[in-house]
Amino acid sequence: MWKFKTPGIPDDEFERAEKVPITKEEVRVIQISKARLKPGQIVYDIGCGSGSISIEAALQIESSGKVLAIDYDETAIELTKRNIEKFGLTNISVIHGNAKEKILELEEADTIFIGGTGGDTKEIVELCENKLKTNGRIVIGIILIETLYSVLQVLEKLQFESVDITQVTISKSRKTTTGTMMLARNPVTIISATRI
Amino acid sequence: MWKFKTPGIPDDEFERAEKVPITKEEVRVIQISKARLKPGQIVYDIGCGSGSISIEAALQIESSGKVLAIDYDETAIELTKRNIEKFGLTNISVIHGNAKEKILELEEADTIFIGGTGGDTKEIVELCENKLKTNGRIVIGIILIETLYSVLQVLEKLQFESVDITQVTISKSRKTTTGTMMLARNPVTIISATRI
User: Fold this and answer.
1) Closest Cα partner for A6 from A48, A56, A44?
2) What is the pLDDT of residues B131-163, one digit of tens each?
3) pTM above the 0.90 mark?
């Protein structure tokens, strides 16, 4: 359970599994904010990993909304289910499979999150164009340079406006025997845009 | 008006004035998340500047809560008032004066935001220790190295736990005639902690 209204659940509140990525707290909070959520919305979380984005989105859209969390990795799906149970949520449906096929079957979305890895991001963005409602938001977390380039290229050709590109670099403190040092994390680029 | 539930109002939605700082969207969103807000809370925004943190906090704590926005700069106070009006909020009280004096008169807080400048931050943190309720949150945005050092020193001596130090560096894209470049902003360090 998360008893606050604001997003930003600490990473260690989530169940974790080896090799399943998590969108870390600060980057997650920015992604959730770029989505501009409100109660009742339909949200896809494509490449849900640990489910942290699904959980935070589900809390924002409340029980009148629905999150559809998709991953091709069975361990990620099981982990997302464990986190859904941990946070006591009933408005997330978990879908195991290839997003490029599964998306076609889904109802239209108000918001689509796309996870930051996988070589298919460009194709998934193209498919999402047809599944997003007018004024719907797409939020893409990107780690790879190749993905960043291909998503930028494809967004220009699709029906999106207000494209925002934000690179986020977070450092966190660690106590050493002699003082406090900052440990850098890798930069993440968040692209968000509005469906025309 | 902001019609979404999530924080993250774009910077250009706020009224601005020359020389009055604004906590920019992405850093603001992380600060709001670190505060862990919920409806009904009492929040101080010390050094409110443009009022962007006050506005976002007021939306999260709803009409049952109250934000007390303090600044010594009259232009900042007037600007905060204009933004309160623009966003149609009625749960923010604006206080013009020196925070070190004004804080003493205020009711106890659930959350205290402290702005990122001014050489008085250490003394204000000390005063805030006595105004924060048990389990209340303090969130300090820091730009200066000297402030970072002095706040870290003082927090160790006061009744705070779960001290988190997060440095945030944001870059935003700009279109040039030949492509898309990233423009770096200055790093901001956000210290947050819980009152024991």
Assistant:
1) A56
2) 999 999 999 999 999 999 999 999 999 999 999
3) yes
What Rg value do the Cα atoms of chain B yield, rounded?
16
The answer to the question of residue A90 being in a domain is yes
- Among the partner-chain residues B8, B37, B167, the one whose CB lies closest to the CB of A5 is B37
A137 touching B (Cβ < 8 Å): no
CATH number at residue A31: 3.40.50.150
Whether A80 and A91 have beta carbons less than 8 Å apart is answered as no
| Residue B4 forms part of a structural domain | no
User: Is position A6 within any domain?
Assistant: no
Whether B5 sits inside 8 A of A170 (CB atoms) is no
Q: Are B44 and B74 in contact (CB under 8 A)?
A: no
Specify binding-site residues of B: 23, 47-51, 71, 99
Instruction: Give how many domains chain A has, as a whole number.
Output: 1
Closest CA to A150 of A187, A102, A191: A191
Query: Count of CB contacts below 8 A, A vs B?
Result: 103
Q: Measured between alpha carbons, how far is A158 from A143 in angstroms, rounded to an integer?
A: 22
Tokens of A40: 């009742």
Tell whether A34 is covered by a domain: yes
pLDDT digits (tens, 9 = 90+) for B73-100: 999 999 999 999 999 999 999 999 999 9
Beta partners for residue A161, in sequence order: A194
Residue B121 buriedness (CB in 10 A; 0-12 / 13-18 / 19+): buried
> Could you tell me whether strands A109-114 and B132-142 are parallel, antiparallel, or unpaired per DSSP bridges?
unpaired
CA A107 to chain CA mean position, Å: 18
Phi–psi pair at B136, nearest 5 degrees? -70, 160
Block residue for tokens 């979380």? A45
- Distance set, CA B88 to CA A37, A90, A183, B3, B91 (Å): 20, 33, 41, 11, 10
The angle subtended at Cα A168 by Cα A166 and Cα A170, nearest 5°, is 170
Q: What are phi and psi of A177, to 5 degrees?
A: -65, -20
Which residue range is the domain that position B166 belongs to? 11-194
**From CA A22, how far away is CA B106, in angstroms rounded?**
41
Residue type, B122: K
Please indicate if any CB of chain B lies within 8 Å of the CB of A37.
yes
